[in-house]
C-alpha cells in the first residue's frame, strides 16, 4: 500500500509539472489567462487585435524605429533604456528590443491594469511562454521586434514581468499624444 501511495504521488507530481508548462494560448492558467484578457475579446469570444494601448502594426507602415535595451546594472537594478517614450496617436512604431543583460528579460506593452494583471499571472506561472503581439521574451544576447500602432491616446506602460524584474525597476512609460 505504501509503494502504491508513493507511486500515485509521484505520478500526480509529474502530471502537475506537465500541466504547469504552456503559453498564453493554452496550458497552465488558461482559465486565469482568459480572465486577464477580459476586455480584449470581441463579441464572438475570440481574442481581438485591438487593445487599450493599440493594435499590432504592419512593418511597412512604421514611421519610427525605437531601440529598447534591456539589461541589469552592477547594483542589482534591471532597466530599460530608454525608460520614457513619447509617440503620436495613430503612429506605428517598430520597437527593436535587445537583451544586453546576463539573464532572460521580456517586454510587455499594455495599459497599467493589463500590466498588473499579467504580472500577477507571471508570479503564479513564471515559466509562461508568450504568444502575444504586444510582448516578447528574450534570452541574453538576443534581439526581437514588435510593430505596434498606437490607436488611443493616454499613458501606457512597458515592463518585464518575469518575477522580481518589475520590482527591480524594469518598467517604463509611453505617452501617446494627439497628433496635430
Which short descriptors sum up this protein?
5-stranded mixed β-sheet; globular; Immunoglobulin-like; 180 residues; 3 helices; alpha+beta
Offer a quick outline of the entry.
The chain is α+β, with helices and mostly antiparallel strands and 180 residues long. The protein is 21% helix and 34% strand.
Could you give the topology of this structure?
Blueprint: H1 2-19, E1 22-23, E2 26-27, H2 30-36, E3 55-56, E4 64-72, E5 78-81, E6 84-88, E7 92-99, E8 105-110, H3 112-124, E9 135-138, E10 143-149, E11 154-159, E12 171-177
Please list the strands of the largest sheet in the order they lie side by side.
3-10-7-4-5
CATH homologous superfamily designation: Cupredoxins -  blue copper proteins
Q: What's the CATH class label?
A: Mainly Beta
Q: If classified by CATH, what would the architecture be?
A: Sandwich
* Major pleated sheet: 5 strands, mixed
Describe this structure in words.
It is a single chain. 21% of the residues lie in helices and 34% in strands. By secondary structure, the protein is an alpha+beta fold. It has a five-stranded mixed beta sheet, with no helix packed on it. A five-stranded mixed beta sheet has the order 6-12-11-8-9, covered by helices on one side. The longest helix has 18 residues, at 2-19. The protein is globular and about 40 Å long.
